[in-house]
Every structure is written in structure tokens, then in C-alpha cells.
């Protein structure tokens, strides 16, 4: 076991540990000033909402719910626009409707939004034509353009990220509370552009079946079904930039616990999931539910160390393991981890991220993912959990409501030559709206078999 684990936790105790993936700012005094301001501003979410999500995640771990987590790889400040936010909600609502219908389970919706602004990078610097600059680390830190001013970490962006998160979450709350998400009117969520016909037909048949079921129940019970007008959305982001996260960490008196109040569900990325390092130390003292990305290099004994550190009290809903191995590796990597957790007698929520192990680079140097690899990893995940008496309780996607061309394949059969047409992501390739809906329908077909 790591040596410092019994030292007391506080929101800054991570500073005693090695912290990977942190930006170096040229003006540390300016950083402190911004962080001091941030720590005095109102939080984005409440402890009550967070506790409610934790209860739902515990129910998902027990097989009574299913979790859909999705959104951008890297949110951009310039994409904090009403149309883009609404379109992302629409596709998540459509997917969740398909999952509710097909799995016959309530779906918990978690967006990768309102704070997904920090990115881990495989190299701290990037070199082009003899010039070496800091890597782009997400809009929280710097800008993607390749020049000294754009790549220099700028503390003002911490304050801007807070503001854009607030603006995004405010609009999401207004839409989801105010009738937009009304299950009686799924036509609100139709996306404008032309749809692939077969996919649209399947989706609309399903929506009609749901409408019929609602009508049927209302006739039988002689009363409107309750609470169809609003849905709940929760937020998540990678808790990567630790000084920023610390500034959003607050002790909440009624609960008597400390929460990160910038998001409901922070997760620890694959590159920072080390038992004796800073990110794990920071997360272990929070009362939020925590997501842990689990990749091919994590051994069963290291996973068990992480579980004991992050969930010392075996609190229901506390820990979600988000595995991301790639379609080739999942069959070798996943069973030993399921086995280790089962032998420990612990309960975790297992979720599959079929995106991050399936990234490839085309001959032209474009980062992409193939739809069939994504579906393939997901199907194997369901099969492996099922065969071992475990349960896959959720899925995690990078997606957008826009009609981008970043991932290959899908019903429209996007090819490498299509990629440059509408490739917008500055980090990882996302499923477009049609591919995302098709993904949900494929999960449903698989489960019904
Ligand atoms: C991500 O989710 O965007 C990410 C970087 O994932 P991972 O840590 O699993 O590589
Ligand atoms: Co990503």
C-alpha cells in the first residue's frame, strides 16, 4: 500500500504528491489571484444533487438503472452557443429514450459538459517545423493555435472556464426544466438536417411505440402519467487541473462533508490514475461519486489498491470503473479485473468507454475511430460481464449533436475521404448525431437478443 495513505486528507493534501499533467504558468502570482477569486464564487451544483446522483449510481450498480454519459472530448469556449448546447442535449435525450425503451430500465443521464475544459496530453510539448511549444491542454489552460501567445498557459482562462461552465449549465437547466425535454413531445428533439432514412424510421417507430404506451397507461389509470415534462441531467468532467478543482472544493455543513461543487461527477483520467499520486489523493477525500478510467496497463492489484483508497467505506454509488481497452484488448484485459473485484466482495459500477482504446491515425495523419470498433468493444463488454456474472451498468461516449465527420463508418458509411469535410474536434474524434443514435439502437438490439 502507498505509504502516505493514512495521512489526513484536506483539499490541498494532493500537493504533497507528484502531480502529472499540470500546466506551468509564467506568472504564478496571477494564478493565485484568480484561484482566490474562484474559491469565493458560488458553486455550480449542490451537495443534494450530488448525493442524489450517488444514490442513482448505486442503483445502477445493483442493476436497477442504466447510465448514459456523453459529450465532447474537449469543450470549447467558442462553442458555448445555444444551438450547439441544445443539439447536444437532443442527441443525449434521443439516445436515452432508445435505451429506456430497449433496456426497460430508467436511464441516468450524465453530460461531459459545463466544465470539460482540461485535457491530458501524451507529450508536454509539440514541435512543428523546428519550433517547440507547450501542448494544447484544453481551453482551461491555453489555445489550440500554434504560436507562443496561443500556447502559453493563461490564468485568465481559469476564470473564463468558470463563466462558460455557468452559462452552459444555466441553459441546460432551463431547457431540461422548462418543457424542452417533455416526453410527451419528443419532436422537440428532432435535429434539423437530413437524417439517414433507415435510422430515422427505426427511431420514429420507437417514439410512436412509447407514445402509445403512455396513452395506454393514461387511459388505464385514468390520469396523466406524472413527471414526464422534465428530465434530470448531471454533469461530469475530468478532474485534471488540480488547483482549479481545489478552488471549487467546499465543505458543506448540512452534509458535514467536502465536495467538488463544480460538477456532480468528477473522473480520474487514465494518465493520472496512480495510487500514490496527486489526482487520486485529491479525489479520495471528496464526497462526490468518482469515476476512474481503467486502461490496459492497470493490473488487478493496482486496481484493488485504487478501489481501497478511493472507496474506503464501501459507500454505495461511490466508485464507477470506466474501462477503455480497445476492441482488440478487452478480452484479455477485462476478465482479470472483474475477477479481482468479485473476489474482494465489493460492489462497483462498471461502465464501458469504447472510444479511447479505439483511436487510430489515418495515412494522412488524421485522428479517427471506426464505428464498428466502438460497437465491437461495447458488445464484447456486455458479453464478458454477462458471462462472468457481472453487470455492465453504463456507457460513456464522445459525441456531438452536430453533423461532423470525425469517426469512420456508421449507417452512412463515412470513409477516410469524408473526414476532412466537417472535422471540428481539436482533440479526440466524436460520434456525430446519427452515429450516436445508431450506437444507442445497436445497444438496444444487442440487449434484446
Ligand atoms: C477522455 O475521456 O477524454 C480521456 C482523455 O480519456 P482517458 O483518460 O481514458 O484516456
Ligand atoms: Co477524449
List the main descriptive attributes of the protein structure presented here.
single chain, 449 residues, alpha/beta, TIM Barrel, eight-stranded parallel barrel, two-stranded antiparallel sheet, globular, binds phosphoenolpyruvate, binds cobalt (II) ion
Spell out the helices and strands N to C. HHEHEEEHHHEHEEEHEHEHEEEHEH
Task: Tell me the total number of β-strands.
Answer: 14
What is the CATH homology-level superfamily? Answer: Aldolase class I
**Tally of distinct domains:** 1
Overall 3D geometry? globular
Trace the largest sheet across and list its strands: 1-2-5-8-9-10-11-14
Q: Which small-molecule species are bound to the chains here?
A: phosphoenolpyruvate, cobalt (II) ion
Largest sheet: 8 strands, parallel, barrel
CATH topology description: TIM Barrel
Count up the helices: 12
Strand-pairing-aware structural class:
alpha/beta
Strand content: 5-15%
Distance between the termini: 43 Å
Question: From the 3D coordinates, which CATH architecture would you assign?
Answer: Alpha-Beta Barrel
What Rg is obtained from the alpha carbons, in whole angstroms?
Answer: 21 Å
State the share of residues found in helices, binned by percent.
25-40%
For the record, the CATH class is Alpha Beta
- Overall residue-averaged pLDDT value: 93
List unreliable stretches of 5+ residues. none
What does this structure look like?
With 449 residues, the chain is of the alpha/beta class. It has a single domain (13-181, 231-448), classed as Aldolase class I (TIM Barrel, Alpha-Beta Barrel), CATH 3.20.20. Helices cover 38% and strands 14% of the residues. It is built from 12 helices and 14 strands. The strands form 4 sheets. Strands 1-2-5-8-9-10-11-14 form an 8-stranded parallel beta barrel, surrounded by 6 helices. A two-stranded antiparallel sheet has the order 3-4. Strands 6-7 form a two-stranded antiparallel sheet. Helix 10 (330-344) packs parallel to helix 11 (371-387). The longest helix is centred in the middle third of the chain and has 25 residues, at 197-221. It is globular. The termini are far apart. The model has no long low-confidence stretch (mean pLDDT 93). The structure holds phosphoenolpyruvate and cobalt (II) ion.
